[in-house]
Specification:
Layout: H1 2-28, E1 29-33, E2 48-52, E3 57-62, E4 65-70, E5 79-83, E6 91-98, E7 103-107, E8 110-113, E9 116-117, H2 119-123, E10 133-137, E11 142-146, E12 164-165, E13 169-178, E14 182-183
Antiparallel strand pairs: 1-2, 2-13, 3-4, 5-6, 5-13, 6-11, 7-8, 7-10, 8-9, 11-12, 13-14
């Protein structure tokens, strides 16, 4: 009888660990590996990162049920993990550039927001970008995203569904933990 009590204690501990891991992985944190060069030099191909799923409130799919409650608006320049608007089965990671109501235009590779050059939006770019895009008027409840490595990024400029909605946001990238630790800004 004593052996069964010990076995039952191990089974309970195992179940608790599994439940905690599932809750943390599906509600609190997202663990991601960066598959492309679109965010280089900020995040390199192959880097591993943690994102905080609850950075803007509650927004997740829990056993096939979508739960969404916005508590905080995403902020310009946040690095966001989101469902790709053209294929929500894929997760993308980009920098938030345009907020609801903004007019975003790219002239000779430089980002302009509401007619003014945005030096901060251009400061994360590793090489001088080129091209003219837009203007894009960001609808309410939507966001305009760009990769930091603009010359090698599949971002809002090229998608059929140009904007990311709040419900497509999975979380905010917060830290790279591999190959070294770095807080993401």
């Amino acid at each position: 009888m004593k052996i069964w009590n010990e076995v039952w204690d191990y089974i309970k501990m195992f179940i608790i660990v599994i439940v905690v891991v599932l809750v943390v992985n599906n509600v609190v944190l997202i663990n991601a590996k960066i598959p492309s060069e679109s965010m280089e030099q900020t995040i390199m191909t192959g880097d591993r990162i943690f994102g905080f799923r609850m950075a803007y409130g509650i927004n997740f799919d829990f056993f096939g049920t979508h739960v969404s409650k916005k508590m905080k608006d995403p902020e310009r320049y946040d690095i966001i993990i989101f469902k790709y608007p053209d294929d929500e089965s894929q997760l993308f990671i980009k920098r938030l550039i345009g907020l609801p109501g903004d007019t975003v235009e790219i002239k000779n590779g430089k980002v302009f927001i509401n007619g003014e050059e945005d030096e901060e939006a251009n400061s994360h770019v590793p090489e001088t970008p080129t091209g003219n895009y837009g203007p894009y008027v960001v609808p309410e409840g939507c966001y305009f995203m760009l990769g930091d490595n603009r010359e090698h990024s599949k971002d809002s400029r090229f998608w059929s569904n140009t904007f990311v909605t709040y419900d497509e946001i999975v979380g905010k990238a917060i830290v790279r933990y591999y190959p070294s630790i770095k807080v993401l800004e």
